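Action item from last meeting closed. Structure (275 res):
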């Protein structure tokens, strides 16, 4: 597992840059996607890269990590709506290639089995992007989550429901259950890329990536993955031991040189959109 620390805006830019690089190298990429506020700047970069750099999603297939149980895909608070709003409606991804679990399925257990099967049938996830919850969850794998778990129905922790409440209208209606792909499903991905930003993630980041691997901190399972990068902005890295070594290693690493050049352009101030 590689830990990368970037100044605030460059962290999301790096995740978008890696997605763009992998998609150009393999237009048929099977891409695992995540919802959440952390991902919003990543999706803004991808939309801009599609519009300005010709990044092509036409042959890509996507699988989202999770969905709230009980919410139809068209529900304003569903992750399906979130994805359409932030990415799917703004790039040339074919709607039939964009997959999320159906939270409104009559039989949630059968829906979990169907979704896990769909991922396996696609050949598995090539690149899985991830955020982290303050409970240490990946997707909605709340502690304790077996490290070999598969797509399943998961009860949401009180902290997670509280954290996601501001995104819900009316507030306080956050569902108590969700469908999430499992930690085992995530670990099967060929490459994992996690992004954590902001000081409110500093404590769980230090626990997950500088502490023991345990089902009580599900994200710690990524320490076992052979090809995983954890991208942090400065505030999220605030409690991580060895941060200075990670910063130095990144700036000296030759394989990140193309990103260091792209970063300067991608983060340059831009004129406001014309009305
Ligand atoms: C969400 C999602 C996760 C996400 C996490 C962090 O509810 N289930 O996939 O990574 O919780 O969310 P945020 O980025 O808003 O902090």
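Sequence:
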């Amino acid at each position: 597992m590689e830990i990368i620390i970037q100044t605030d805006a460059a962290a999301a830019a790096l995740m978008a840059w890696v997605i763009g690089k992998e998609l150009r190298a393999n237009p048929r990429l099977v891409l695992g996607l995540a919802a959440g506020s952390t991902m919003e700047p990543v999706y803004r970069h991808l939309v801009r890269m599609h519009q300005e750099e010709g990044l092509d999603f036409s042959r890509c297939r996507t699988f989202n990590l999770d969905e709230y149980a009980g919410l139809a895909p068209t529900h304003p608070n569903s992750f399906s709506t979130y994805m359409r709003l932030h990415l799917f409606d703004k790039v040339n991804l074919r709607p039939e290639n964009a997959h999320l679990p159906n939270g409104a399925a009559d039989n949630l257990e059968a829906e979990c089995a169907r979704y896990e099967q769909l991922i396996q049938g696609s050949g598995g996830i090539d690149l899985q992007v991830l955020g982290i919850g303050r409970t240490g969850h990946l997707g909605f794998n709340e502690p304790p989550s077996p490290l070999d778990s598969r797509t399943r129905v998961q009860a949401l922790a009180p902290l997670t429901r509280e954290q996601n409440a501001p995104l819900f209208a009316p507030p306080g209606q956050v569902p108590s259950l969700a469908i999430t792909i499992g930690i085992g499903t995530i670990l099967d991905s060929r490459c994992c890329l996690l992004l954590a930003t902001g000081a409110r993630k500093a404590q769980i980041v230090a626990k997950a990536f500088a502490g023991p691997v345990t089902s009580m901190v599900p994200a710690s399972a990524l320490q076992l993955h052979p090809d995983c990068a954890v991208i942090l902005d400065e505030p999220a890295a605030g409690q991580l031991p060895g941060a200075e070594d990670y910063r130095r290693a990144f700036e000296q690493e030759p394989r990140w040189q193309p990103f260091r050049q792209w970063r300067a352009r991608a983060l340059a101030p831009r004129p406001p959109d014309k009305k």
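Note appended to the action item: Residues 34-38, 65-66, 131-133, 139-140, 164 surround GLP (CB under 6 Å).
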